[in-house]
Every structure is written in C-alpha cells, then in structure tokens.
Amino acid sequence: AVYAWSVFSTALKSPHAMGLSNPEASLPFTVTIGMIFIGSYIGGRIQDRVGPRPVALTGGIIYGLGCILASLAQDHSQLWLLILGYGVISGFGLGFAYIVPIAMLQKWFPDKRGLITGLAVAGFGFGAVLTAPVAQWLIAMRPTNPDWAFLPLGIGYLVLSLIGASFFRNPPVGYIVPGWVRATSGRVRDSYKEYTEKEALRTPQWYLLTAILTLNVTVGIALISQANSSAVDIAGYSLAGAAALVGILALFNGGGRIFWAWISNKTGRTTAFTLMLGLQGVCLLLIPHASNAALFFILAAIIYLCYGGGFGTMPATAGDFFGVKHAGAIYGLMIIGWSLGGLIGPPIIAALIGPDKAYTLGYTVIGIIALVALVLPLVTRMPRAKADALKVIPPDASGDALGGVAT
Fold first, then answer.
1. CA-based diameter of the chain, in Å?
2. Distance (Å, rounded) from C-alpha 327 to C-alpha 226?
3. What's the average model confidence in pLDDT over 154-170?
4. Which of 13, 64, 204, 397 is the most buried (most CB within 10 A)?
5. Alpha-carbon distances of 345 from 174, 351, 363, 367, rounded to whole Å
6. CA 307/CA 273 separation, integer angstroms
7. Measuring CA to CA, how many Å separate 218 from each of 112, 221, 230, 235, 279?
C-alpha cells in the first residue's frame, strides 16, 4: 500500500482538503520509508531468535493500527497526526514484518535463493495494484477529507496480516534440500561461511551493497513519489487515469522483484544491478519529455521494474555474500539503504520540481545520479574465502537448519 501514496498525495494537496504543499505531501511517505529500517532491523534480530510468526503478527498489528490512527487527521493543522500514524507507527510495523518472509524463505529454499526472495517481496510491490484504485474510490467519497480512507484500509491490512502471518514458520532443525550443495563457482556462488552481523559489518562488501540499494531506491522512489502528479502534468492523464496508472505500474514494481531476481541467477547479482541502474538513468532523463501517454507509461514501467528488482535481488545478494543463518539481522540492517533512499529521493525531487512544476530539472538530476551509481556494482566483489581456515559444521540444536562454518 505504501506505493500507492501518490494517490493520497494528490488528494491531500487539494485546497479543498488539507491544502498541503508538494514537500509537505511527501513527508508522511518519506517518514514511512525512513521508519522501515528501524522496524526491519529490530524485527530481523528478533525473528532470528524467536521465529517468524510472532514477529509477523506483531508487525501486521502495528501497521494496521497506524493507518487507523492516520485516518483521524482532518486538516492542515493535523499533518503531524498523519505523519505519526502513517509515517512513524505504520512505517515501523511495515519494516518489522517485511523482513520476516525474506529471511524465512531463504532457509526453506537455499537452492533457489534469487527466485524465492523475489517472490517473497513481490507481494509488497503488487499491493498498490489493489490499493491505488480502492484508495481513489474511497477518497472520491469524501474528497474534502481524504485521510478517512485510511480507516477501512487499516482494518483490512490488520485482518489480512493476521491471517497471512499465522502460516509462517522456519524449517525444522537439520532441514536440507535433497541434492543441494553450496555453489563455489559460476556467476552466482554461495558464501564460504555464515557471517554474523558483526562480521558482515567489518567487510567493505556490506557497505558497497548497502550503497547500491540506497541509490537504486533513491532514483526509483523519486518517480514513485511523484507518479500521480507527473502523469497528469507531463502526459495529460486525468486524475482517475493517473490513479489507475499507479495501480498498473505496481504490477511492474512487483513483477520486477521476480524478473530481476531470476535474471540475476543468469547474469550474476552485480551485473543485474548495473543493468537496473543504467535503465533507470536513461528512462529518468527521457520521462519529463514524454508528453505521449503511452510513452510515459513505458518509461515509468521500466523504472518501476528496475526499482522493484533491487528489492528482489539484494536479499539473495546478501545471502550469497554473507550466508543465510543470520539473514534477518544482516539484511534487516542493510535495509537502512531503503530508508536512506526514501529520505533522500522524495524530498529532492519535490524540491526540484517545486511549485513551478520543473519536471525536466528534477528528473534530469535524478537520472544523472542513477548513471553515476553504475560504478558501485562494477567494483563490488564477494568476500574472499580462506579455505584452509574453514570447515563446515553440522546443524546444531539452536535451530539453525543450514549449518554453519567454524574458523
């Protein structure tokens, strides 16, 4: 649902509603993305200890209640309430639950790490397919109080999260996929050891991967935060048409998580990120000139596809580099890149576009950032193994299903 924010943003900027400025309307979304890191980091550490189900249940409850609280905001003076409910509380709950299936499914399917993490996060991208048109329909009922739409949405999120989380569990102790062996060569290789969180943080690779994720989020989310108004102002979409477009683009956000995760198994993880950043850079440079509705859609769809691809590919990349035993904590901490990108991208693009609707300036700057970022995946390599200092150890009684290594 977070990727349907531009539908709410357009409604909240109406002088007949809250009358927010462009930067003000991006604040709740920005805070949400910022809080996702805090929730993911805490949730990842807890789920590594207590298992996925209680963490997912708690995150779903917090997320739903935050949306319900946001529905109480009535006018410009209560922007703080919208930021608190949707931004702080819902953002934390979202991150708290988000990390769970990523870590859990890598333990169930270590042989299909790229594809399975893509599938795990695809639903997050697909969410706006339903939310965008439903939100537009709810907002149209009370156009002077668009925040009320968070009430039925929050209740729905709460109920569905509780149902889904009830099925979560880790594989049993000693679980091994029949016939699977760790890959030690090829475009995609498995880590030579199971890193702890502290060990991962002592490698330059963790910081390079986090920077790649940060920049991929920054450039993609810049468009996402302005998608609705950009479609209206650049390509002449109606408000209803723009809301429908946001929903359709969510298919590419979700699909990109599966598509690029699959592609990365063929090309290698860092090559996939090079392609994602390059494609986004070119499309961002072109999109402010796309006055044709079909061309605007094609360019936006490619950006959404590549943006989503970062989330489908990075968990598997982290698993390749650092192992999956502590995936919740390691990738949960890496999600700071998502939050940083969310804190950087939307405010920059909102400020550059400004009241004069300077879309060419805004998207040109973001496009250049994407092209410069190409350097990072080109210089990132897996940590080097010290084969003579390592030996594989069997699964232990602590519940690690994949075993580990000792030095």
1. 70
2. 33
3. 92
4. 64
5. 43, 10, 11, 11
6. 10
7. 28, 6, 17, 23, 14
**Other Cβ atoms closer than 10 A to 143:** 11
Distance in angstroms (rounded) separating the CA atoms of residues 312 and 261:
5
Structure token pair of residue 229: 């108004």
Amino acid at 216: N
pLDDT at residue 401 above 60? Answer: no
Could you give the CA distance from residue 306 to residue 279 in angstroms, rounded to a whole number?
7
Residues in the chain: 407
Task: Supply the DSSP symbol for 194.
Answer: -
Query: Which residue's entry shows tokens 């035993």?
Result: 325
Domains along the chain with CATH numbers: 2-171+195-383 (1.20.1250.20)
Q: Are 171 and 401 in contact (CB under 8 A)?
A: yes
pLDDT band at 384 (very low <50, low <70, confident <90, very high): confident
CB atoms closer than 10 angstroms to residue 172:
9
Of 38, 6, 37, 131, give the one whose Cα is nearest residue 341: 37
Write down the pLDDT at residue 130.
Answer: 82
- Rounded distance between C-alpha atoms, residue 14 and residue 21, angstroms: 9
Average pLDDT for 341-346: 89
| Arithmetic mean of pLDDT, 326-333 | 81
User: Rounded to an integer, what distance in angstroms lies between the CA atom of residue 192 and that of residue 319?
Assistant: 11
User: Of all residues in the chain, what percent carry a pLDDT higher than 70?
Assistant: 91
pLDDT(181) > 50? yes
Distance CA 203, CA 406 (A): 18
Q: Is the dihedral of CA 97, 99, 101, 107 positive or negative?
A: negative
Q: 147: number of CA atoms within 13 Å, CB side?
A: 28
pLDDT at 389 over 50: no
Dihedral, CA of residue 237, residue 240, residue 246 and residue 248, to nearest 10: -100
Determine the Cα–Cα distance for residues 297 and 283; give it in Å rounded to an integer: 11
Instruction: Give the type of residue at 59.
Output: G
End-to-end alpha carbon distance in the chain: 44
Compute the distance between CA of residue 308 and CA of residue 125 in angstroms, rounded to an integer. 7
Q: What is the phi/psi pair of residue 393, to 5°?
A: -115, 150
d(CA 61, CA 56): 9
